[in-house]
Task: structure prediction
Amino acid sequence: MPRTSLKHAAPLGLALLGVVVTAFSACSGSSGGDSGGGTVDAAQDRVHVAPPEFDSGEDNIDAGPLCVNGVSVDGAYPKRPTAVELGATAPNFSWDGLDENGKALPIKLADYFEPCAAKSRLLVVRVSAAWCGTCRYGLLHTADSKQASFGKRLRFLDLLVADEDGNPAAASDLAAHRARIDSPDRVAADPNVSFVFMPPPTLLLPLYVLIDTRTMGIRNILSDPDPAELAYRLGGELALLDGQAQPAYPSQTLVDGQWSANQWALISEIKTPGAPPADPTNEKADDVAAAAFGKALFSDQTLSPSNMVSCATCHQFAKGTADGLAQSQGVGHVDRNAPAIALASFARWQFWDGRADSQWAQATGPFEAAKEFGSTRLFVAHQIYANYKPQYEAVWTKYPLPDLTDMLRFPSSGMPGVPAYDAMATADKDAITRILVNVGKSIAAYERTFRVQPTKLDTYATGDFAALSGDEKKGLGTALKVGCFQCHWGPRLTDDAFHNTRFPTGKQDGTADPGRTAVVTNVLSGQLISSSVYSDAPAAHSGITHLVAGGPLVGAFRTPTLRGITESAPYGHGGNLTAFADVVKLYGNAGLMPGDPRATGTSEPCLPKFDTTVQPTLFPFLQLMTANATAP
Ligand code: HEC
Ligand code: HEC
Result:
């Protein structure tokens, strides 16, 4: 009987199904359906059920032969019902891809269907994102999986769902993705994230979807498996397909008695950042005189007509280079939280929404922001002329200041959109903008000298196992397990990408902050982007020429570094998460509920979700994130 045989063939799948089913049952419970004799834990409002028997999946896989007399009964692809579900027949998705040799071709699941093969093979569909820290180990160790005894019985298909910034993957991202894989087979762009198992929050990247090529049945789903687990599941599924006994669980050496190889790889990447990467878009990026000039400008309140605001107002070293406020206060009340900026020179993008793509362009923004300096580029230029002419011209020798005492040519205040400025001669407008840009580049040179101090975690990551206490290691373990390292990884513990985590707005009217989606025009065609005439290396531009507002950009913000969070409370773009407990509680629920008006858009499918007993174990890990930023 099909039913019985399937149950025999299923134990590996069921082991994982337990996880998925808990989540499924929450859905069936809330719709009032029969959740399979589950019990409701009132405190958690979750339903716990024993793993159910397969439903549709069972029928799908075993509903009669797919091959008769060496010919496929169903033609190109099984005609039976398909679904993205454990046990179901996988839908015949198709994608833009690259073949084994890197040549472009369309790829569809039907390409893998071999109903008449003597033995099943296992198609390993690996779902990852270019920003994803936890994805990288597996991509770099594909050959290990293939070399195991089941070598030729595995086919790998790598699906890329998003690029390094978190934009939906495109065919043009595939060559770079192929280069991330030690032993690439086929790769394909999957911007629609075909393999989302509902509801998503339980599944962390990378995802391995194991498909039987004789039936196209989804045999198993592995979420961020360690190498031993992966080898065990691959071998186990093949053994079951062959009707043989499952292999024994392989032994593995754990670093410091607890970390699998992929976990330790992530830990050992945590290193104290030193000097930031070169910035060719700023010819004075590492010029000592420019940095000294920038230092003076950084705390100069005369650049604001209010005479009360400077960069240092909101970026104080005593407050971790932030301001300690929920939302910043300049000449007005800003809608967002001031981030710590000690490591900003490392980032590809600046601001929570990434509307600037260079450090110097960022530094021009606050002057003309109505609620920050409330200043204009003409006002700034006049102040530079009055107070810094020799110093400015000593650094910016290529750009002698025009005669700014001529108030008819250069009105006292104005910027694009202000009639006094717009009416100026084009060359004069350019001269004024150039002063603003050079002010920005000088401040950027100063910010590039900021440094942070090593943490205990950095010491631990070098292999000094005594550097962390038991609770701190436990916190690190939780962060690894619940999925924080998908986005917070590397020396600064950030992927610099944009994600929707459904954090609460900081806007005074309580409406959600749209984030990345609102800045697309500026990113592509703003006056001061790094491909503009004001850049010293237009070719070093991000390369983004095509970015579409909407979709995953709605409500997306850039992942901040975790270094320095012990000093820079409160948290999030809106700044209304007062303490670690608030951040962790929010993550525990995978962000604000859908429909909560304080956030907009759909949360990243791989957001962590964990219960209140797990939450406090993260605190000792977060407490390790000191920065003690210094500037010369
Ligand atoms: C009124 C307070 C205020 C002032 C003044 C101010 N900032 Fe900020 N700064 C902020 C806030 C708030 C943000 C986040 C804004 C956003 O993302 O929309 C920010 C963002 C930044 C960032 C981006 C950091 C990152 O990781 O994205 C840098 C760098 C920075 N500011 C430097 C400066 C410099 C340089 C000046 C002076 C020219 C300055 N700030 C003036 C409040 C301020
Ligand atoms: C999908 C990517 C992603 C994952 C996974 C993730 N984060 Fe974040 N994290 C972000 C983004 C994006 C923000 C900024 C969100 C905002 O303000 O809208 C953020 C903000 C934070 C902040 C606030 C920092 C500040 O300076 O305001 C902390 C703390 C933090 N995350 C810790 C964690 C922990 C702990 C985990 C694991 C439980 C985690 N994150 C998992 C992307 C992620």
Residues 339, 479, 482-484, 486-488, 499, 501, 503, 557, 559-560, 562, 565, 568, 571-573, 583, 587, 604, 607-608, 618 surround heme C (ligand 2) (CB under 6 Å). The CA atoms of residues 520 and 548 lie 7 Å apart.
